[in-house]
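Good morning C.,

I know you're traveling, so I'll keep this short. The sequence:
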Amino acid sequence: MKDKHALGIFDRLKLKFSEYKFGYAAMEYEFRRNNLTGTLMANFSMDHEIMGLWFSDELEGNRELLQQLLGIIASLRNGAVTSQRIVGSAISIDLDNEQVRVFANVLETQESIELDESMSLYEGESEAFCGLEDFESALLSWQEFIDEPS
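The tokens, ready to paste straight into the viewer:
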């Protein structure tokens, strides 16, 4: 049995990986379990924050969705499908055979906002991209983490 005092109230699994093949920035993530409430949380590095929200809000407790995504990735690899979209309540995912886009649903419905040339909108917390292999690795790490006894 784990010593809860040594771990505090959180169990942690911290992983880091990088994807250079398609030019994506390095992505770090950490999964946590609150031992008092059983809540699972995911934190992803800057430029990938939306993925942490998706793991925590859309994927937490949804093993069916996790298995569906792993199946989609296998289908993308063997050419059975070329792309797939999973629409969540607040965050959705686009997958193709090279990359994954995780984005807030509001991005698809927003009207275009015209800004001065010197200004731009920061969408780092609303949209993120990573390689398909890296996304699969994160999903498998999440699966391993949730399967650990608490």
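Safe travels,
E.
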